[in-house]
Structure formats: C-alpha cells, structure tokens
Write a structure and sequence with these properties.
2 copies of one chain form a homodimer. By secondary structure, the first copy, chain A, is α/β, with parallel strands linked by helices. Chain A folds into 3 domains: about 45 residues, lambda repressor-like DNA-binding domains (434 Repressor (Amino-terminal Domain), Orthogonal Bundle); about 130 residues, Response regulator (Rossmann fold, 3-Layer(aba) Sandwich), CATH 3.40.50.2300; about 140 residues, Rossmann fold, CATH 3.40.50.2300. Chain A is about 45% helix and about 15% strand. Chain A contains 13 helices and 12 strands. In chain A, the strands form 3 sheets. A 6-stranded parallel beta sheet of chain A has the order 2-1-3-4-5-11, sandwiched between helices. A 4-stranded parallel beta sheet of chain A has the order 7-6-8-9, with helices on both faces. In chain A, α5 links the parallel β1 and β2. Chain A is elongated, with a radius of gyration of 26 Å. In chain A, about 50% of the residues are buried. At the A-B interface, α4, α5 and β2 of A face α4, α5 and β2 of B. β2 of chain A pairs antiparallel with β2 of chain B. Chain B binds a DNA duplex through α2 and α4.
DNA sequence: GTGGTTTTCGGTAACGTTCTCGCTACTTTA
DNA sequence: TAAAGTAGCGAGAACGTTACCGAAAACCAC
C-alpha cells in the first residue's frame, strides 16, 4: 500500500526555489534569507508538510528512535521506570520502541537478533532473568549504538548502568527487622542468576552476620518474582521444624504472596511474623496490614537512564557511568510488634 | 554521528553478482536460482547483515511501526492491554512506538501534530480524558494510516473500535448491589467527557430505574480516575444529610480510595456500606475486604485491537468494526452482608 | 570602479533498498 | 530446426532528504 505525501519538492516547486534551500529553511536559518525562510515555513504550514523520517534517517544514518527492552510492563516498577524514560525521550524529540521479553532469555535473544542496527539510535535494557549471553549488547555498542542498563544490569558489559542501592536497601531492611526484635529472619530471594538478587541477598546476610546472627541456608529460598512464588515459598518454609519469625522478600509482590500464605495459616503478621518487601509498590499500602518496604526511585531511574543514554548518543566518547540511587526504608504495620 | 553497516551492496560485491539479485534472494526466492539464493543467505549470515529499515521504508513508504497512544501505562488495565498489543504486533513483525498523554489533551494534540505520517503504518488509540478535537485522527485515516480505538473511543471518528461492555457491566454491578439489599446506591463516576463514563453511568441509572429506585444527582459524582479522587468523593458524600449505603465506582482505583476513606470513618465495608469497582485490578484481591468488581478483558482488548488494525493495514477497504467484549461480575467480600 | 568578502542560493551526489524493465541463455514445443 | 517460452540475472531509476561544493549576487573598502 503506497502512499504519497507532501514533500519538500512540492514546496520547492510551488515557491520556484530549489530543494536545498527548502531543506535548509526548514531546519536552521543558516545560509538562508529570513524572507525566504518565512515563505518556506508558511508554505509548509499551508500544505501541512510532515518530514519523512525514513529519508532523513537514511541520509543521516539515524532514526530518532530509542529502544526499551524490559522483562515486563505490567507492574509498578517497570511501568514507572518507563514513564520516566518517556518523559526525557519526549523532551529530546525521541520516540520509544518497546520490547517486552516476558523474562524469557530466548525471546530476548530473538529480539536482539532481529534488531536492525539502523532502526535504533540507542537502547535501554533491563535484562531478563536467565540471560547469559551478552554478546548482542557488545555488538551493538561496537557498532556505535549506545546501550544503558537499568535495574537488572549485565555486569560484564562495559557501559553505563543505573540501579538502586540494592545492597544497602537490603541491609537496612534486615537491620530494621532485627531492631524490631525478630531473630529468625528468612529471605525470599529472586532468581539466582541476577546481580541484584545477589546484592540484596548479600545485604541480608551481612546484616545478620554483623548482628551476630547465623545465616541459615534453609531460610534462603530462590524463586521467581511473582506473588505466587512468595506464597509457595512460605508453604515450603512452614514445613521446616524451625520456622522463621520474619520474612524479607526481594520485592513487594512476593512479600504480598507471603502475607496471603501467612493469613491462610492464621499467623498474625507483624506480631508473630514480620514481613518486609522491596519496591514500594502501591499495593504495599493497600494490603492489610500495610507492608513495610524499601522504596526504589523508579521514576528517577527511568529519567536518569535515558539522560545518560542521550549523553552516550550525542557525545563521541562519553565515559560509562555506574549510578546507584539510594533506596529508602518505609516502615509500616507489617513489622510493628 | 554517522555509522556504516553491512549493506546488500557489500554482499553483492563479495559474491560478484548484482544488487538486485541479492535483494531478491534475501526476500522471496522468486526469480532467483536456489543455489544463488543459498550463497547470498550464507554470505549475509557471515557478514551479519541487517536490513536498513529506513531505506526499505523509504522505497515502500511504510515503516513497520505501529503507534500506541494511551493516557498512561502505570496501571493494570493499560499495561495489560499493551501486553496484548505487543504479542500480536510482535508476531506480525511490527514494532511498537509508545506515546503517553498523561491524560492531557494538549499533550495528545502535540503528539498528533508532530507525528510524521511516514513513521507509522497504523495507530492504536485510547483518547485522553478531555480530548475534544478529533480532526487529527481523521486526517491520519484520510492519509491512509488506519486508526483503531480501544477502551476510550472517539465516537465521531469512523473506524474500528474495541471496548468492554460498559453499559451491561455497570448494570450488572448495580443490580448486584440491589440484590444484596443495598438501596441508597451512589456512583463515583469518571470524567464527564468520556463515552465510557457515560455508558457506565447509564447502566447504573437504568438498573436503579428498572428496580423502582430513584436516581439522585447528589449521589453521582464525576471526578478523575485516581485513588485520591475516590477518597475525596466519599468525603463529599459523607457531608450529605442522607448518606448512601453502597458505592459503585467507575474503576477499582477509585473504589479502593473510597474504601480507605470508609475505613477511616470506621464504616464496616460490606455490612454497612457495599462497594463495587470496575476493572479487576489485582489490587482488588489484595485489599481487605476483597473488592467486588466487574472484570474487563484487558489482554483480549489489546490483542483484538491490534488484530483489527492489522486487517485495516493489509486489506484495502476493510470495513470498520465495533467490537464489544463482555464484562464479568466477580463477587467478593465488599458486597457481602 | 576594482577587487575582495559575504550572503544566499542551486546542482548534484549520496544514503540503502526495491521495482520495473529488458537482456541473455537455456528449455520446451510443434 | 525454428519459434516460442521461461528462468535467472543486471542496469538504472526511484523513494525524500541532507551534504557538499561552487556560483551568482550583493555588499564593502579603498
């Protein structure tokens, strides 16, 4: 289905001037008489001229598109990060192309494989859980397409990364539980392959150790990010002879799943068993008792990632940066005895 | 920043054949010897050739991009619709360009104004709350770029639309409240300008009327979609001499805001005042008491919208369709006496 | 006036691909 | 064996724009 639109040729013909002049007039005023420029602009408006980005992209070998590759969009964290990205991208005249991996490494590989190098000026990425090959990212960077990681970063790839302070957030969360008098603290961890899973686990373990508490491997369970996972993790923990008296979950969804499982067992949340999450998903304020959590600056992470990407795209040799944004403990009812 | 990639010219040169032949070999086998085709494919793989979509788009005047214009992405409904869209688009080799209006009519106008006709093959739209000018959409369609509306549709524009059954969903919800013995039913409605706001309101009013109950304008409050709006609506209602004994909210977020306001007033939800929402946001199962709601088939709406758009894009004169997907009442604790 | 700048503009190639047409060489048909 | 058909390939234009370079026109100083 071919279509024909108004082009600068049409404007040039109507005004009896050359295409080059129209082209220049439409961009900066450089090398063009103000009067001519006015005429061109007026005519363009009159004919409702819209630039053809394919042609511009072809000659300039750029697309004004930024890719966003994420595991999902249907949750508070990612959709909020995305909103931050959108704000910056829009302000700079870039459009966003979204790719959802559904946490599937195959899907991620397929997307990166199909990616036309010419269709993207830059890429923002939060890697899928089990991604193990980062060759595609390095190839992109080698080809001059900057990549910036956020949240779930690929350590091995040398480029800018933006994340929250997973280690200290987890440490603070665990310390808070200890301060509240909980002693048998379990950790509902994320998939073992991810960097931030390990960071949060490390924060948890160090807090225990520094407080003279033992780290018990039976109380650390690695599973997915979903509410169901949290629910099942509790089911597993509650088969143990010695049950925990507090749970630190890798995110709020799992914490909520855990709370539902505890409610089913008639366990008093807060009093008997403390629960703490990570993210500050709006759900954490809705559930009863309200969930203590570690707030992530999701919107800021989105903004900053996109800003960094812009710098990588415009400056020739912008040095890669790793930015770690602070996480903030928010105490609510689920950890109040 | 200009970059150079592998092109079909490179393949042609290395194989000492013409560009035309390479081009044909890379697409369908038509008019090209299987052996030649094999050689080209092998060389393309070896050189890691990626097609330049700008060039293809330029000559074919299409982009393989679909635009998605939505008020927001940070909520269950829209992010789920988007996931449905993504699935279909991806399966058909289209990329998605996302535009977020933040429910601002100005923003929506600006986006549509800037839209290059050549950068999109089709557009999926859920209009912003107060949008009043639909000229842009009609212009797109006139220019051969199909538009499909979902959820928040622009009635006046003649094109395909996909939505849930707002009227009957609202009717059922209200009928359910009446069946449970509630008689003084208020409606926390959405912004007055939107079609689906009016449909839900009509369903509510008809259910009252058909059951011999009066429609009282003081009990119908139009405001935004947010949780805070629901909270404030209750504050207003509770200043009335005669307070309602049930609330039907236009969506779950508002219903939840209302529940929080009721909890603050120590009102027993379910027993004293029934509350019912619309959407089936996962939050509705988390809050306590759990929220009765009308489930919208968000994922299906996304899939179907994109499928319809595909048909508009590929078939020359595909006739516009209006699809209304059924909504389903889900009874939970907030309406059980 | 003369020579030299500066301002303003036009011609042309290029970007990577597809498309249309035409040519050659081989195969089939009568 | 000649005519007709077919398979396979190449040349060149086209898509809409920008980039580069040179030329004309206008201005300026002496």
């Amino acid at each position: 289905m071919r279509r024909h639109y108004i082009t600068i040729k049409d404007i040039a013909r109507e005004l009896a001037i050359s295409v080059s002049t129209v082209s220049r007039a439409l961009r900066d005023a450089y090398d063009v008489n103000p009067k001519t420029r006015e005429k061109v602009l007026a005519k363009a408006m009159e004919l409702n001229y819209k630039p053809n980005f394919n042609a511009i992209g072809l000659v300039q070998s750029q697309s004004h598109h930024i890719g966003v590759l994420m595991p999902a969009i249907t949750n508070y964290y990612f959709s909020t990060v995305f909103t931050g990205i959108e704000q910056v991208a829009n302000a700079n005249g870039y459009s966003l192309i979204v790719f959802i991996t559904n946490d599937s490494a195959e899907r991620e590989q397929a997307i990166l494989q199909d990616l036309s190098l010419s269709s993207l000026d830059g890429l923002l990425v939060s890697v899928s859980s089990q991604a193990d090959s980062y060759a595609h990212f390095e190839e992109l960077i080698r080809n001059g397409i900057p990549v910036v990681f956020f949240d779930r970063v690929a350590d091995a790839v040398l480029t800018s990364k933006v994340m929250q302070d997973d280690y200290h957030g987890a440490y603070e969360a665990t310390q808070h539980l200890i301060d509240q008098g909980y002693r048998r603290i379990a950790h509902l961890a994320g998939p073992a392959g991810l960097t931030f899973t390990l960071k949060r686990r490390k924060g948890y373990e160090d807090a225990l150790t520094n407080n003279g508490l033992p780290v018990r491997s039976a109380w650390v369970i690695h599973s997915g990010f979903s509410q169901e996972c949290g629910f099942e993790d509790v089911a597993r923990l509650w088969t143990l002879a010695e049950k925990p008296d507090a749970l630190f979950a890798v995110n709020d969804r799992k914490a909520i799943g855990a709370m539902l499982a505890l409610k089913e067992r008639k366990v008093q949340i807060g009093k008997e068993v403390g629960v703490i999450g990570f993210t500050n998903d709006p759900m954490s304020q809705i559930i009863s008792p309200t969930l203590t959590t570690v707030a992530e600056p999701a919107f800021e992470i989105g903004k900053l990632s996109c800003e960094l990407l812009m710098k990588h795209m415009t400056r020739k040799n912008f040095e890669a940066q790793e930015v770690i944004l602070p996480a903030r403990l928010i105490v609510r009812e689920s950890t109040r005895r």
